[in-house]
C-alpha cells in the first residue's frame, strides 16, 4: 500500500484543498506518464497519452496488460492481479508496450497501490526508455563490431597518451605482452630505453596522420605503420597506432629485384665462362701432359713451378664455375646427398690454419638433400670464408643443421620438410643499411672483394629450390640460414673416387671438339694411356671417321659453333657403331634431362683423373693401374 510519509510535509506546507489542485497540476504538466488502474485504465495523464500513443478514450475499455508487448504480457497481468488482491509485486521494472501502430516502446514503470472504499487501486509512473534503449543497443552493437575488428585484425593495434603511455592494446598485442596499460610503449613493445627513432607521436600530437614502413633491426622485421590522432575530451591527442607485419612482402620484393639483376648478369657471365672454360681445359690438359712427360727429370724447383701453375689454374677454374652458376645452362646436377660429411669437410678445409675455431652440430639423422655437391660446396665455402674475413682477429663459427617441418610458407618456400643450416659468427656484423644489398652481384665492402660470393650463394640456393636468410647487426656477428628441401629418397648417391693413378686403357676413341688444342691434348693423353685415338673438328669429319672407325668410345663436345653438336651427331654414331659408349663434355652444367642420351657427362674444365674415372665407369675393361700420379 502507498506510503504517504511525504504527504505530511505537503499538508504542513499547503492547505489540503490546494494540495489536491497541486497534484492535478503536476499530473497534467509532468513529462512522466502517470496512470491509475485496477484491471482497466481509470486515469491516464497527457504525458502517458503522448509517450504511449494511446488516447484515454481508446484505453478506458482496455485491460492494462492488453497494450503490453506479448513478451511481457503474462508477467504484467500476474503482477497487477497480485497487487489487486493485496499481494506483493516488484515496485518497478522495465517492460515493452505496443503503440496503436504496433511499434515497440520501452518503459520503466514504478507502481504503488492505495485503498479507496475498501478497493485496491494502482497508481504508476511510466518513463519512456525507448531512445535510451535503442541508443544503448546501437552502442553495444557498434562496440562489439569495433571490438571484433580490433581483435580479429592480424596486426598490432594500440593507443598511446601524449607522453608515451599505453592506453589500449588489442588482443594480439596483449597475448604477447600481458597487461600493459599505463606502461611506456617504447619500453614494453620495442624493449627500448628511449622513444623509437621511427616514432610519429610528435606529428600525431599536432593532429597529423602518418603512414610509413619501418624496419626493426632487433627482430629483422618490417612493419607498415599507420598512426592516427585521436582527440580526447581533455583536448589532447592520443595516438592510435596500427602495425602490420610486412616482412614477407619486403623480402619477396627484394628477392624479385635480386633475381632480375641476376638474370641480366647471368647472360653475360654464361658467354664469357663458356669460352674461358675451353681455354682452361686446354691449359690444364697441357700442364698435366707436360708434367707427365717430364716427370722423371723434374727438379724440386720445377715441380714447385708446376704446382703453382696448377694452383693458379684451379683458382681460375673456381672463378669460371662461379660465373657459370649465373649462366642460363647453369642448372645444378643434383644428386641425393648427405650434408654431414660435406659440411664437415668444407668448413674444416676453409678454416684450417686460421685463427677462427669452429663448432659443428649436425645430427646423424639429418634428412638427405638433392644437391649439386660442387655448387653447394661453393655456397658453404663462400659463407665460411666471409665469416672468417669478418673475424680478422679470430673468433668462433657455429655451424648447425637440423630437420625442419615448415608448416607456414617461409619466403618463397612451400610448406614441407627442409634441412635448415645455420652459420653463426661473432664477427664485425653487417650494418642495417648494408644488409639489403649483400646478395646483390658486385656488392662488396671489402678492399679486394668481388661481391659475387653471396650473389652466387643466392642463385645456387634458388636453383636448388631453397632459401637463404641473413640476420645481423653491426658489431654483433652475422647469422646466415639456408633452407634446402629434404630429399624424397633414402640413400645417398655413391661417388666413384677419382684415383690418382696412371690409367692403362685399350680401345678406339673418337674425340669431337672444334677447339684444336683440346682435341690434341686429349688425343695425346689418351694415346699415352694406351688408347687408339682419332679426332674430328666438325660433324662431316666425325661421320666420315665413324663410318669406318669401329670406335668403342666417343668424347663429344655439346656445342660446335655453326654446326651440329653432340646431340645431333649422336644418332649417326649409334647407327654406325651401336655398341659405342659416349661421353658428353661441355662447359655448362646441364640438367639430367639433356644428358640422358649419353653414357656419361664431363664438365669442362676437367682433369685427366676425372676423365679416366668416367671412362673406367662406362668401359669397365679399362682400369687405373697401380702407378701413382703425384
Ligand atoms: P665479398 O666477400 O667479395 O665482399 P660477398 O657477396 O660474399 O662478396 O659479400 C658481400 C658483402 O656482405 C661483404 O662485402 C660484406 O660486407 C658482407 N658480409 C657477408 N658475409 C658477412 C659476414 N659473415 N659478416 C659481416 N659481413 C658480411
UniProtKB/TrEMBL annotation:
It catalyses: ATP + protein L-histidine = ADP + protein N-phospho-L-histidine. It is an enzyme of class 2 (transferase). Residues 508-619 form the Response regulatory domain. GO terms for molecular function: phosphorelay sensor kinase activity. InterPro entries: CheY-like_superfamily, HATPase_C_sf, HATPase_dom, His_kinase_dom, HisK_dim/P_dom, HisK_dim/P_sf, PAS, PAS-like_dom_sf. Keywords: Phosphoprotein. It comes from the Bacteria. Its EC number is 2.7.13.3. The modification 4-aspartylphosphate is found at residue 557. Residues 271-488 form the Histidine kinase domain. Residues 41-87 form the PAS domain. The keyword Phosphoprotein applies. Pfam families: HATPase_c (PF02518), HisKA (PF00512), PAS_3 (PF08447), Response_reg (PF00072). NCBIfam families: sensory_box. This is histidine kinase. It comes from Thermodesulfatator autotrophicus. The lineage of its organism: Bacteria, Pseudomonadati, Thermodesulfobacteriota, Thermodesulfobacteria, Thermodesulfobacteriales.
